[in-house]
Amino acid sequence: MIEFHPIARTAVDFQQGISAESIEAICCRTFGGQTRAVAARELGTGLFNSTYLLQLHDGQQAVLRVSPQPQAAIFTHERFLLRREQGLETALTAVCPLAPQTLFADFSQELLDRDWVIQTFVTGELWDVVQGELSAAETAVLWQQLAEIAKQIHTATGPHFGFPDNNPGFERWSTAVAHITQIMRDDLTALGLDRPDTQTYADCLVAGQALLDAVSIPRLVHGDLWPKNVLIDRAQSPPKIVGLLDAERGIWGDPLAEWIFYYYEVPDAFWDGYGRPPTDPATQFRQLTYHGLYTIQLLLEATRFGWEPEPFWQTLAEVNQKMESMVS
Predict the structure, then answer these.
(1) Spatial distance between the Cα atoms of 141 and 116, rounded to a whole number of angstroms
(2) Domains of the chain (ranges plus CATH)?
(3) What value, to the nearest 5°, has the Cα angle with vertex 31 and ends 30 and 34?
(4) Model confidence over 185-228: pLDDT tens digits?
């Protein structure tokens, strides 16, 4: 019998775990009869997939990630995130060996009605969890390292713009951005929350299409490149980044479309290593585009996490005003 340590959840929680029996069946399919899990502990650091640390009988460890339940209230742009990550894994691991590798992926939904993957376990501490214990100098070094990792990730090129594999692919970046915008607007409409500001934003995308299409090569955008997804080793001096997790929100697009550039206080130590964006009008318009895009996404997420939406609507109005001034 597996030693099982789930997280206690209520029936209304977005994340819902799976049973010990399901984990045993998953391990059997993954490893056959040669390897079995002796313990499984659910991890509480993520907010979307359910994640388990598996202790195998031979002393090795692995990570099981399970998508949300079919009835979970997910948004259109969040569908099949584990499949999206698989579609990017080869390109990502080629330029970033710090990313976990998939040992087995099952999207058949034969064992349970959810997608799941088992990946290699990366030893380290989550940067975000231990941030308060780091000195300013140590934090700066980590941001410098993340800048170099981001530069490497952004060298990878893809076959089209937009989501990977079975999701829509587009020849032009402007079309991909317009598609992502529309599906998020559709979700806002379904919730009865859409406002004219999102139409104003979409109109600006049409008017600024040529500025967006200055991005002619689809490059890998990690999509969640922040300290909550970074593992570090503090035994080394200075501390060193040893793992980069959760590329499930990755897309093929413009490297400047990493959300942390707009909704996270990225310090100078990062930009000094990564390189600061140009200040020409086309780049500025693209930056406003991504700021607006992630603001619309946060309006959706506000419904999940109970955030006050009005500050995001105000931000979108301000972004729209700046975009309109550039394309009018």
Answers:
(1) 35
(2) 3-120 (3.30.200.20), 125-327 (3.90.1200.10)
(3) 165
(4) 999 999 999 999 999 999 999 999 999 999 999 999 999 999 99
